[in-house]
């Protein structure tokens, strides 16, 4: 059985349901889907899809750091968007946060996301 611990930081949005920001199990960290909420206000970030995606990555970065890691430890991302026409913009923001070798990734279009946001990203780290 693995050691399992919940990860929490005030530098990322508080959970808005019955889940943890992340769970660390041994050397793997499973970060819950992050949406573009500003942690201090819990309001959706202003701006276009690029600005909103940047907020999502800032939230992911904060949770990764709270778990003792960084975005460099990311091995897998699952991206959900409400419009695949935003794919190029999301890609451009992602590219600014990662270096090769890039993490594995899936990107899907979904009908809707919490609080009506256009993007949600979850991430797995191996420390």
From TrEMBL:
It is an enzyme of class 3 (hydrolase). Signal peptide: none annotated. It comes from the Bacteria. Keywords: Hydrolase. It holds the Pfam family Ribonuc_L-PSP. Gene3D superfamilies: RutC-like. The keyword Hydrolase applies. GO terms for molecular function: 2-iminobutanoate/2-iminopropanoate deaminase. Its EC number is 3.5.99.10. Belongs to the RutC family. This is 2-iminobutanoate/2-iminopropanoate deaminase.
